[in-house]
Amino acid sequence: MKAFSAIFACLAAALAVSAESVSDLHVETDASSVIQLTDSNFEKLTQATTGSTTGAFSSGNRSHTAGPWFVKFYAPWCSHCRHMAPAWERLARELKGVVNVADLDATRSPNVAKRFGIKGYPTLIFIDKGRMYVYKGGERTTERLAAFATSEYQKTISTAVPAPLTYLGVLVDFMITGVQEAQRIYDVAFRGFFVVSSFSLLLGLVIGMICCVILLSKPATPATVGKPTKISARKQD
Asked: Domain 28-164 falls in which CATH fold?
């Protein structure tokens, strides 16, 4: 009975610790300093094209100060994006009030991703005063990212922030993407059909040649007309 009580007490303590850990994790998520950007709020919050953001602003139930933006374009399935998430969160806390650190899910906000020409994940872009600086430092530690966002970005080549896509631009891009996808499917299907047809023809020729060789190499059966005739004649006598 005492052993059962001891085991029950250990299980209760373990469950209490697990519940506390889950609660801490939930609080940690709610208190995240990383701003979530989307197609609908990107330009409104960042004013990336003009760089004219002034004063403080609110995002959800949290307030943020104005200033440059350091945006991570990511995809949910990207392992490198998940691996750098803790460093990105620490960066957001360290630079809070100086640089706005943000996330943008490119799979859910394709218009902004296409606007900035995102080709791989994660892509880190620092935006300040209508100019953009792409981080290519290699290491994605909090220290290296903080150094880039506070000073080292000035040593890299900047380009003008692309203008937001218009409705016509989105429509044209959609049509171009559709045509390219149709061309890709056609190319893949045609190549597959050509390969299968060629293989089938070659296999048929090989099987036909093998059958011809077998039939032609089969020896002819000799005719027997000698002794059986004499034997049958003697039997008649």
From this structure: Glutaredoxin (3.40.30)
The alpha carbon of 1 is separated from its chain's Cα centroid by a whole number of angstroms, namely 55
Query: Domain boundaries in the chain?
Result: 28-164, 166-211
- First CA to last CA across the chain, in angstroms? 114
List CB contacts of 13: < 8 A, sequence separation 6 or more: none
Give percent above pLDDT 70 in the chain.
67
Mean pLDDT of 97-123: 96
Please report, for residues 33, 82, 122, 215, the alpha-carbon distance to residue 76 in angstroms, rounded to integers and kept in the order given.
19, 8, 10, 63
**In this structure, what is the dihedral angle of CA atoms 36, 39, 40, 46, given to the nearest 10 degrees?**
60
The type of residue at 149 is: A
Q: Report H helices in 53-141.
A: 79-83, 85-94, 110-115
Q: Say if CB 84 and CB 137 are below 8 A apart.
A: no
The residue among 70, 73, 74 whose CA lies nearest residue 126 is 70
What is the token pair recorded at 22? Answer: 């889950």
Per residue in 46-66, pLDDT tens?
998 877 654 455 655 555 667
For residues 167 and 154, give the distance between their C-alpha atoms in angstroms, rounded to a whole number.
34
Percent pLDDT > 90 in the chain is: 46
74 touches 105 (CB < 8 A):
yes
pLDDT in tens, 179-205: 766 777 877 777 777 788 888 888 888
| pTM of the predicted model as reported, rounded to 2 decimal places | 0.61
